[in-house]
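This part of the workshop introduces the protein records we will be handling. A record pairs a protein's sequence with a compact description of its fold. Comparing a sequence with its tokens is the quickest way to learn the format. To make this concrete, we reproduce a full record directly below:
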Amino acid sequence: MRACWACLGLALCAFPASAQVQRTDRILAVPAGKVTLDGDLKDWDLSAAIESAFDEALRPKFTVGLALMYDAQAFYIGAHFVDDTPLLNRHDPAVEPNVGWNADALQLRLCSDPSAPYPLPESNSDRICHLTMWYFTDGKLPVLHIQYGMDYHGTKIWTDRDSGVVFKADGDGKGYTLEARVPWPRLNAPGPPKPGGRIAIVFQPQWSDSTGWKQVLTFNEVIREAGFSFQGSRMWGQAIFLEKGRLAPAERPKTPAERDQPLSLSLPLPDPQARWLSAAVFNSGGALVRTLSPVELTGRQAGKALELRWDGMDDDGNPLPPGRYQVKVLTHRGIGQRYVASLHSAGNPPWRTDDGTGAWGGDHAPPLAACSDAQRVYLGWMISEAGWAVIAVDQRLTPDGKPRKYWGQHCVLDIGILLTAMATDGERVFVAQDGRPWGGGGEKNTAAIVLWDAKTGRPVNFPFGKRALVVSEWPDSLKPPELTPYERMSIYHPEITRKRPWERFRDNDFGPQELGLNLVGVAVIGDVVYASLRLENRVVAFNWRTGEKVAEYEVPAPAGLAVEKTGTLLVVSGKGLARLDPGSRQITPLADGLAAPWGVAVGPDGRIYVTDCGEAMCVKVFQPDGTLAGKIGRAGGRPWVGPYDPEGMLRPAGLTVDAEGKVWVTEFDDTPRRVSVWSTDGKLLADLLGPGAYAVEGKADEQHPRWVNLHNTLFELDYATGKSRPVATLVRPQMTGLQLTPDGGFMGQAFRFRHHNGEHYLAHAGRGGVVIY
């Protein structure tokens, strides 16, 4: 890399401050003429349209043009997206109507009442409308989805011509146009707006990845302040309804650059071959006061100066006082890079790929569930946002010890946010979820099962027409006011003993009981799906084709379920294991005295495998008659802190035995996250780690770069080969009641290595303070 520095002086005079420097806070709606909904905006009045980009440096990528019109009958929305993979959205409105935002889409939030106060206060008024418009790729179907109020109630869906939305891809495949006509009654408007009227509004364009299952980029446009538009309405901007259209250039809305960038700097380019320029402003004392956005120089004429406009603010958004300043300029020709390795990710490759086979599992919690059929193994993480809550992998391991991934899918957020167990019949994957529904769920908790197509990962409805089979619902009966909403999610029943993490470590109290969840086991026999309701001391059976309950069995504290070849059901119950005959309803104890059993599976030879937590921390193997036949993994597990011992498990939870006889165990632990794979005679075959938490960070030791830490785990990395191995669990702050972040998770900064006088230290710059080990 070649870099060049240049400096120039600047005299700054006082000028008015501006509140918005990147996004506009208003958009103008002009009267509509005769419009044909055909996906072509040539018959639109675009004189008030605005164009917005995610980042100026990325133009024309991730750029969208937005326009509004209106008449007495309807609100018109026009948009043009620059998109290399246009109109990719795999979310079927008949199956996942509330997930259409998670791929190519346009979201629009507004209050249809011009008399409402502004900034718009949060309320559950029916005139607050959340519109999501997308093109369902597989069905070639335009969709309009509307919910009302900040509690997102009253969902309505229109498709095809009824939607009033038309999509059309550009001829060059580099973008698409959206054209929509929304009648005012759909927005519960008190009537058509009058010229001069104003309403609160915000746009959120979405760009999909190349699979059509996830969005990879989004931002808010038309805002008055920063924030999450779906969570708070006070940050929404305004739409102003004009009396006339066909605006002259002086009348059209000014862009943020035109309105808010009063200063112009002429900067020299010392290197004609430079590809990028960065500039920074320093005060007379030499202190850095503002770092300006980098500028791409590709295509600029050599030798010509660059004109850079800016707002005169410092890095905190405050106007700089009059005075003399210096602008330092850095140009560079770009850098080269070489991929070395990815730590704490069993993905092969560890990044997302166009076919969906890259990357690994979930990001917000450890792996929890597993099941398998004749060809594949399905693994589940308790909750995920950017990652995959459910993945399907090949049973066979590659020479590097990683299985091929076939597909990954998300949580079903509007049904229940916590994945707890899985089962499969070879055609479908039955995924148990437990928790309060996401948005509009009130105080009711739901235990439900959802379906995924085992071969493709496509979400499917049950034959009775619903996305979810609800097996139990109950109110939150214990809601101490001092608890956060997240903490309340695990307060389902007064009899549950809530323990803080350090108390669980003190008592070695690990197992299904620590979840505080109800639905923790699921199994399938033919047309019947069985569910363990741990908090209700019963196993329930439903015909999953009709949705009808067919049986109920009293079982103390049931957890994992598994099916035997004879059609009987194995049930983890309390600290024991039992066999349930659905036909005769007979329950026969098989084994007792386990520490904290969780999951159960049956091998091809009929032997029974049980994950046992507590002080056991291993998999125990039983003959069909309940006789203990052995164990897998080191008794007591690996150390909580200290050298990493791959022969030991920690918090083994879900497990499955594949058709080849390999035992897959999900370990419900974060440091590191792990799915271990074993032979039936106890040989470790694979150590599948990760993935990291949302926004996780890793740091290498600057003096000894081969040592890298993330998730409080120390790794050794060989930069020549790219191979790495976990070496140790460095710390577990929760063992003594210390929390480095508000949620106790692993988002954000990793430990920094520091060395002084022959001693080695770890420093964590947490949100609440600095902790040094």
Observations:
- The first helix runs from residue 256 to 260.
- The chain has three helices and 53 strands.
- Confidence is low (pLDDT under 50) at residues 13-21, 478-495.
- The CA atoms of residues 445 and 474 lie 5 Å apart.
